[in-house]
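Action item from last meeting closed. Structure (409 res):
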């Protein structure tokens, strides 16, 4: 316990953390505040040092395995407390601990090598989980990406609809156009664009489970002749498209492949075409994916700094025509997911087991805190090939958005 005790005495300056060892010994860190103290209990004597030596990996695995518990299952409160105290401390225990950063950096570089076969394997690890799991915590349209909150009190379903409206407005769609949706998920974006703009859409995915659902939805909507879905890597797509949209897929491309990704998108995009890339990103400088997330949640995943995206795309000749930073929208989205997962505890344990449930809550809690206190954000980057492909001002976006909202509300 001495190593963890040493960390926490330096770390906790605001809020209060209580640690109870397996022998009952109690330790208190920080100061009394208006917030309820967070109480962590260790259930074997080796667990505290395991967490101290392998900070994020150790805490995640200890929580998953039941070696560490949090009173009231408030894992979100614990991670919020830790990150609130480390937001300005770049040498925080969560980022490095006693594991040399050079080792983690080298490991991350290898893990980002997402060649075709590995990309499919990585996608299957996360997205080919039971369809019932995603039904339990996502919105009705299965949007597994950042919502758009025009009001923080909006429901999850409204925020996800508003996200689709927001993106469609930036695409400046016209009837009869041909659209490519890279990383189409369960088909919600493709079906929406077809419904509101009378366009033909090809959605591509590497998830066999998502493909089944997307195809079924298109058939049920009676538009399978105009909204088609394929199990194919983006590198294998051929043809020309008036619009390209990609939401929540770029995080799986990997920095070594950024230039080829944009080069291929350039070749697929019509001369007067428009592309909209929606991706999780990081504020400030490039970084690394924490080892726990890479191992258990998104193998091969990486959230880029804006400089990495723009630096890669500028080699393709694509013109960056608009950039928007969504700073807190994903935190609000994930908080909805977290609450739904907590409410569905019994169903998730029945579907998998208690360890999986704890893993999933730890993942969502950590993600929420990263968007609130850490470096995470979302970027929406619009690209064109010709500088006169869109109106001179951004007014058309707001006008399109108003029209689409009026048709929905």
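Sequence:
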């Amino acid at each position: 316990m001495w190593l963890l005790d040493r960390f926490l005495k330096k770390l906790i300056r605001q809020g209060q953390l209580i640690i109870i060892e397996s022998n009952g010994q109690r330790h208190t860190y920080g100061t009394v505040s208006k917030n309820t103290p967070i109480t962590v209990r260790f259930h074997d004597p080796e667990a505290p040092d395991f967490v101290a030596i392998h900070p994020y990996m150790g805490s995640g695995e200890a929580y998953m395995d039941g070696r560490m518990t949090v009173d009231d299952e408030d894992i979100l409160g614990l991670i919020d407390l830790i990150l609130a105290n480390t937001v300005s401390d770049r040498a925080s225990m969560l980022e490095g601990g006693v594991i040399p950063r050079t080792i983690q950096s080298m490991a991350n570089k290898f893990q980002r090598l997402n060649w075709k076969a590995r990309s499919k394997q990585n996608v299957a690890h996360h997205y080919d989980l039971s369809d019932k799991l995603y039904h339990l915590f996502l919105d009705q349209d299965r949007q597994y990406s950042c919502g758009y909150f025009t009001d923080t009190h909006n429901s999850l379903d409204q925020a996800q609809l508003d996200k689709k409206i927001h993106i469609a407005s930036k695409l400046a769609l016209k009837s009869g156009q041909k659209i490519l949706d890279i990383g189409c998920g369960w088909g919600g974006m493709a079906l929406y664009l077809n419904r509101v703009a009378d366009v033909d859409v090809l959605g591509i995915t590497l998830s066999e489970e998502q493909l089944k659902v997307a195809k079924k939805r298109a058939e049920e909507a009676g538009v399978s002749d105009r909204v088609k879905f394929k199990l194919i890597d983006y590198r294998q797509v051929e043809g020309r498209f008036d619009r390209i949209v990609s939401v929540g897929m770029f995080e799986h491309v990997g920095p070594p492949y950024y230039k080829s990704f944009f080069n291929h998108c350039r070749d697929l995009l019509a001369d007067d075409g428009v592309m909209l890339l929606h991706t999780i990103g990081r504020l400030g400088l490039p970084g690394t994916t924490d080892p726990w997330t890479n191992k258990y949640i998104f193998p091969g995943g990486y959230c880029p700094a804006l400089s990495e995206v723009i630096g890669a795309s500028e080699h393709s000749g694509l013109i960056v025509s608009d950039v928007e930073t969504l700073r807190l929208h994903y935190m609000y989205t994930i908080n909805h997911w977290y609450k739904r997962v907590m409410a569905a505890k019994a169903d998730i344990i029945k579907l998998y087991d208690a360890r999986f449930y704890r893993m999933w809550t730890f993942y969502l809690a950590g993600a929420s805190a990263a968007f609130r206190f850490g470096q995470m954000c979302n970027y929406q980057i619009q690209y064109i090939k010709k500088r006169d492909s869109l109106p001179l001002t951004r007014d058309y976006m707001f006008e399109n958005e108003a029209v689409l909202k009026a048709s929905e509300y």
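Note appended to the action item: Residues 354-372 form the longest helix (19 residues).
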